[in-house]
Design brief:
The chain is an alpha+beta fold and 317 residues long. It folds into two domains: 93 residues, no CATH class; 204 residues, Sandwich (Immunoglobulin-like), CATH 2.60.40. The protein contains three helices and 19 strands.
Length: 317
């Protein structure tokens, strides 16, 4: 091989080797490092050029190759640097702790309470045939519509709007969902995002808990009799999230996941109470699994207790 081409080949190989070094070195992947490699190599090659007899075109080709390889190394190093920075940023964002709870002055908190009524004649609760499983004993009635003396039970009541950007601590104590008499207790449950739901089976038969959410993760888990409790959480807000039992098709209940502690479920007398509200203007939502949702605007002053009643008609009116 002619001497000038051999010399050019050596220069090109050296540049490529240094480019690879720049790419592989974890702590030398910045633009400054790549430029430094280029300048250093240029200084080393320049004296050799002066004493050589290579043709001008050959040297031009070698210089072009040198610049091209250096630029490729720079681009690769820059890409690696940006990727590392992006990864670090993502990791830092994931590692950030949850925002602290917004403080509420306990001396100013208000209360909203009331009664929810059913307007009309409620149908009788349907009897459930549980004979398919000998472990399911006793009587059981559907809880789709529970009305007593016009009072409507199992209505989920919560502050739907008005809390703004306030944040709240996740309760450390779990809420309990029990399977007893081949029925879920309670039929309607409220829980905060991230709060533990402790699921118990006190029946002498196996149950299969199966939430079917729209916004949370779906899961399906069996729980034999006398087995350990199952503990689950829900990450996202979701109202009237249905839960069924794959073993017993009549077993149904609803979990309501909210971001604040300001919620309640009406009891058999249709009553509810929400305590600890900071003064302000709010939208209170009343939600029933069959009758739909009704909303009311309410303003509460410091230390005020305000009664907000609501009624539902057949068909959700």
């Amino acid at each position: 091989m002619p001497e000038d081409k051999l010399h050019s080949s050596r220069i090109t190989q050296e540049v490529e080797d240094r480019g690879r070094i720049c790419i592989l070195k974890k702590h030398s992947s910045s633009r400054r490092s790549a430029r430094s490699e280029f300048e250093k190599l240029k200084k080393e090659v320049e004296p050799q050029r002066k004493g050589d007899t290579m043709k001008k075109t050959t040297w031009t080709f070698a210089t072009f190759t040198l610049a091209l390889c250096a630029l490729l190394a720079l681009a690769a190093c820059s890409k690696k640097e940006n990727t590392e920075q992006s990864s670090n940023t993502s990791a830092e964002q994931q590692a950030q702790p949850a925002a602290p709870a917004t403080p509420i002055d306990p001396a100013t908190v208000a209360t909203v309470n009331g009664t929810v009524k059913f307007d009309g004649t409620a149908p009788k609760a349907a009897k459930i045939d549980m004979s398919q499983d000998p472990g399911c004993k006793g009587t059981n009635e559907a809880e789709t519509l529970v009305v007593s003396g016009g009072d409507l039970a199992n209505v989920f009541v919560y502050v739907k709007d008005g809390l703004g950007s306030r944040t709240f601590d996740t309760p450390k104590d779990p809420v309990v969902l029990e399977q007893k008499g081949c029925q879920y207790h309670p039929h309607v449950l409220g829980v905060m995002t991230g709060q533990t739901v402790d699921i118990k089976n006190t029946d002498p038969t196996t149950h299969n808990i199966h939430p079917t959410p729209k916004d949370n993760r779906e899961w399906n888990e069996s729980q034999p009799p006398s087995s350990a409790d199952i503990q689950k959480t829900f990450a996202r807000e979701e109202i009237m999230l249905p839960v069924k039992c794959n073993q017993h098709p009549w077993m149904k209940m609803y979990v309501n996941v909210v971001k604040s502690p300001f919620y309640a479920v009406t009891d058999k007398s249709g009553k509810y109470e929400i305590k600890g509200l900071p003064p302000g203007d709010y939208t209170i939502a009343f939600v029933h699994e069959k009758l739909g949702e009704q909303d009311q605007k309410v303003t509460v002053a410091a230390k005020e207790t305000k009664t907000v009643d609501q009624s539902f008609k057949a068909g959700g009116e």
